[in-house]
Amino acid sequence: xxxxxxxxxxxxxxxxxxxxxxxxxxxxxxxxxxxxxxxxxxxxxxxxxxxxxxxxxxxxxxxxxxxxxxxxxxxxxxxxxxxxxxxxxxxxxxxxxxxxxxxxxxxxxxxxxxxxxxxxxxxxxxxxxxxxxxxxxxxxxxxxxxxxxxxxxxxxxxxxxxxxxxxxxxxxxxxxxxxxxxxxxxxxxxxxxxxxxxxxxxxxxxxxxxxxxxxxxxxxxxxxxxxxxxxxxxxxxxxxxxxxxxxxxxxxxxxxxxxxxxxxxxxxxxxxxxxxxxxxxxxxxxxxxxxxxxxxxxx
Amino acid sequence: xxxxxxxxxxxxxxxxxxxxxxxxxxxxxxxxxxxxxxxxxxxxxxxxxxxxxxxxxxxxxxxxxxxxxxxxxxxxxxxxxxxxxxxxxxxxxxxxxxxxxxxxxxxxxxxxxxxxxxxxxxxxxxxxxxxxxxxxxxxxxxxxxxxxxxxxxxxxxxxxxxxxxxxxxxxxxxxxxxxxxxxxxxxxxxxxxxxxxxxxxxxxxxxxxxxxxxxxxxxxxxxxxxxxxxxxxxxxxxxxxxxxxxxxxxxxxxxxxxxxxxxxxxxxxxxxxxxxxxxxxxxxxxxxxxxxxxxxxxxxxxxxxxxxxxxxxxxxxxxxxxxxxxxxxxxxxxxxxxxxxxxxxxxxxxxxxxxxxxxxxxxxxxxxxxxxxxxxxxxxxxxxxxxxxxxxxxxxxxxxxxxxxxxxxxxxxxxxxxxxxxxxxxxxxxxxxxxxxxxxxxxxxxxxxxxxxxxxxxxxxxxxxxxxxxxxxxxxxxxxxxxxxxxxxxxxxxxxxxxxxxxxxxxxxxxxxxxxxxxxxxxxxxxxxxx
Lengths: 299, 531
Ligand code: SF4
Ligand code: SF4
Prior knowledge:
heterodimer, A: alpha/beta, Alpha-Beta Plaits, Rossmann fold, 2 domains, four-stranded antiparallel sheet, 20% strand, B: alpha+beta, Beta Polymerase, domain 2, Cytochrome-c3 Hydrogenase, chain B, 3 domains, five-stranded mixed sheet, three-stranded antiparallel sheet, 41% helix
C-alpha cells in the first residue's frame, strides 16, 4: 500500500455498510463500536477517540480515509455519529433503520483565511489579541510538538494576535492536552481556577477529547472534560496546526455567550464566588475588557 | 541452543566462574542469553560481568510470574557491546518474602529503576540509599499496579494526601525555588526543586511521574496490533522509534524478521524522526540563550521534514506507519526521488544555519562550559544517547547492535568529551548531517520486495528483547507473550529514565537562569519516563 496523502478523518458510506465488526476490531481506540439488541445493530463512530490511523479503512471497503483534519466541535456529542441497522443472522447488517445524523462537514480553509478570521474576532472581543496558556495534563508530547509548530515562522500565529503566555493569570484560553492523569488532576484544576473569567478551555487531541488509547484507568481520568468544563474539542493524534487553529477559532466564537453567562452568574452569586479567579485585568467583575459587538453571533 | 560465537567465551567464563550456581542457561536467540540464578548471586555476577566483559546494565525490571512459576522475577539486562549480545539474568523473588537487594550503591544507574519496581510490584528494597517512592507519588494508596491481581481499571480515590516532602537543604543564605509541575511554556509537566545559595544551584531534586498513564499495564490488556499504536504514544517525539522497538521484540519472540525493504523503510523513518527532533532542539537551545533567529530557521527546516513525513507516511509525526512484520506503507519511485531531493536540498540550508551559530561568539560563549556532565559521572549513571556521546561515551545501538537496516550502511558516530551544552548541541549537528547522508544511502540501496510479513502469535511464555537507537538514545522493549496473541508483560525503557539523574548533576554550580538551556540540551521525555 502506498501512502498517497495526509490522513484526516475516516468517512463511512453509511448506506452501503455491511458489517461493522472488522472495523471495530481493527480500531485501536474503540472509536468505531457497535451494539446488538433485539435484531438491531447500533453502530457508532466517535471522532473524539479517533486517531486518524486508517486501520479501519484497511479492513472495510465502506470506509475511506479523507484528508480533512479540521474536525473541532463545540459539543462533545457532535463528534459522534450513530446509525441503526437490521441485524442479519450471519452477524452482518443491512437495511439502515435510522440514518446517521451528519455532523456539519468541516471546510478546509487556508491558513491565511483562518488566521485572518481569528485576528478579526480577537480584535472584536479582546481589543487586540488572544492569550493562550498551554497545559499538558498527561499527553505523550506529540500534541505539544504540533503546538510548538504553531509558533514557528511557517504558521507564525503571533501575526494573528495569538500569544502563548507563561502564566494562567494572563490567559484567555487554556489549551489542554491529555489524558488527564491522576497525578495532574489537581494541578489542572488549580491552573483552571487561576485563569480570570470568562475563560475558555480547548481540549486537544484524541487523548484530551476522550482519553484516547489510554482511556480511563487506575492512573488516568481520561478526557479533559472529566475534570474541568471544556468549550471546544479538537480531535486528531496529534491535531495538525490547521486543526489547532480551526479549533481555537471555534472557541473564540463562544466568548460572547460565556462572557454574558459569567456576568449573570456573578450578579446572582455575588463577587468572590471563586476565590482563585481574580477579575480580568483588575477590572470589577462583569467588565469584560472587550467591547462586544451587538448581535455578534458565534460561529 | 546456538549462541553467537562472540558470546561463547562469555558464556564459558560465566559457567566456569559460577559453577553450580547457575540454575539454568538458555538462549532463545543467538544474541540473547537468559541465565537463571538466585538473589545472592546478583551482586557478584553483575560485578564480574561488568568488570571482565565491560557489560552495561541497561535495564532492570520485574515480572509477576506467580501464576505460572510461583514467584516474581527480576530481570537484569546486560548489554555486551563488544560481543554484540545481551545477557539477561533472571532471579526469582518468592511471594512470601517480597524483597530484593539493591545494587544502587555499586551501580547508581539503577537507582530509579529499582524504586520503580518497589512501587509498582510491592517488592521491598533492601539496602537502597534512598528507598522513597518514585514512580507512584506519596499520596497513592498501597496498591501495586503491575501485579497480576491488580485490575487496570481499578478506581483510585482522587489526589488528596500530603505533598511530597523534599529533602531539606540547610545553611546560611540557602533558599529553595520550586518549579512546576505546570511549566511556563509548551512543555510537559514535572516538578523541580532548586536549592540555591546566591546564584549557583547547590542541589536539584526532581519529582517526575506526573504523566504516569498506566502504559505498561495497558499493554497487558490490548491485542498485539493495538499495542503497536500504544507504543507510538509512549513518547510522541519518538513515536516511530518506540513502535519499532516494540515490533522488533514481538518479531523476535515470534521468530520472524521484517523483510529487507521494510527494514530499510524503518531506517529511513528513524532517521527522519532523528532529523526533525535534532533540528527542533538545535533551535530551542539557541532560543534559550536568546538567539531566536536560529530557532526560526530550524523550525522552518523542521516543518519541511514534517511535511515530507506526511507525504511519505500520511502523518507528520510518522504515526500509523509502524506495524508488526514491517511497515504499513511502501514508498513509490516518486516518493523515493522526493526523499533524495529533499536530503540534497536540506544540506546546504542546514549548513548555513550551522554557520549562523558559529558566527555568534556570544552564543558559543554561553553554551561552552555550561551544564557540564563529566564523563566519569555519565559512565556511572549509564547515560545513553546524545548526552552520553557528548560526554565521551562511544555508544550507538545502530552501530553496536545493528537493527532495521543499519548493517547495510556506514555510520559515523560523533563523539565529544566536554559534556557541556555546546557539545550536546554539536553531537546533534553532527548527527543531523549523518542522518542526511544515511537517508541518501538508504534511498540509493533500497531493495525491492515485500514491505511486510505475517507475524504469527508468539508462543505463550516466549520472551524477547527489542531495541532501537532512538534520536534521544537507547530504547528497549521486553515482552513476555501470553496465550491468544496477548502480552503477559511489556517493559518499556526510554532513555529519558536513564538520563534524568544526569541533569541533576549537570546543573550543579550553574545559575538557575541557565537551567532552561541545560534542560533543553538534554531534552528528556517526561511521558517516556513516566509511562
Ligand atoms: S481511523 Fe483508526 S482510530 Fe479512527 S476509527 Fe479508524 S481505526 Fe479507529
Ligand atoms: S492525542 Fe495522540 S499525540 Fe496527543 S497526547 Fe494523545 S497520543 Fe499523544
